[in-house]
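Incident review: delayed structure delivery

Summary: a single-chain prediction request sat in the queue longer than the usual turnaround. Root cause was a stuck worker, restarted by the on-call engineer. No data loss occurred. The affected request and its eventual output are reproduced below so the record is complete for anyone auditing the incident later.

Affected input:
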Amino acid sequence: MKRIILAGGGHGHINVLKNLIQNPLLDYEILLITDFKKQYYSGMLAGFIEGIYTEQDISFDVEKLSKMANVRYIEEKIIAIDKANQKVITSKGKYPYDFLSINLGSLSNINFPIKSEDVCLVKPIKNVVDAKDRVSEMYRKNPRLKISFIGAGASGVELGLAFRAAFPEAEISIMTTKNILENFNKSAKNKLKKLLDTKSIKIITGQRVNLIKDKKIHTNDDIYDFDFAFITTGFCGPDINFDGFMTFNNNYLAVNNKLFADKNVLAMGDAASIKEYPTMPKAGVYAIREAPILYQNLLKLINGDNDFINYKPQKKYLQIINCGNKRAMSNYGSLSNYGKISWKIKDKIDRDYMKI
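Output delivered after worker restart:
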């Protein structure tokens, strides 16, 4: 019996499991290997911080879904994938494969030393889920808690607004080398700048962080105190040796526009970069579109059908940032909208996505 290995429990593989529950592959041994029991959905993380959603609302139970899909669940950390010998190597063993699908996610990209325990890297998302309890305890002791976010992209801004809603008396700042929300249109940026100001969230621009040590952020020209800090400065590929595979900078696995990294290996999501689209951002909206193509091409691969489906990223896509208090900012092309309607749209999209 041939073996299919699903390396990682990312959203693409959640989609594979959902499909296998409905349409089992009875003639194959299927393994899913991950070191995370739960797969968290980043789109609902801010709502979880604010208290709108529970941890159960924003996560998939990977082990439970695997059992429902008749997939063998292995909870081990993947440390390497050996192309020549067709093996997934974990901290505990080696697993040969005939077919392999990779959906491992990304890690926070750090360009400066961190010598402090009160710092949270936002990838993997489990870090932020756990940090909420830590910050809550600190806030109970000191409501004027200083919370800093380093990085002012969508993740940093959305989390800053979520923590403001959850901890109204805290002193919150967002620090960046350039400006906020570089990938958003001018209208959305201006509205969010005003909103951040209204909510007393301080934006600190032109600051390149060189060191975080002893609850102090050392930048190119100043030092800032903090009680708890979140790093949202960008991402890199997983800490895995892709032995024999082509990779890009920051250890992103190279795939073609059919999501193949090798003749019998597919990959998608934040761990991969598509050779035909080297500048494509690492954003969940792309991964959601890739997921059904990964599943269909995996089926074609194991069935010997070479008529694979091409993935082509959309030029424009809807971005919605949760702004707290059941209001959100939507950004599409040159259009933007802030308010309850945007939040309701986001809430509906997110809840529908989490349905099994």
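Verification: The radius of gyration is 21 Å.
Action items: add queue-age alerting; document worker restart procedure.
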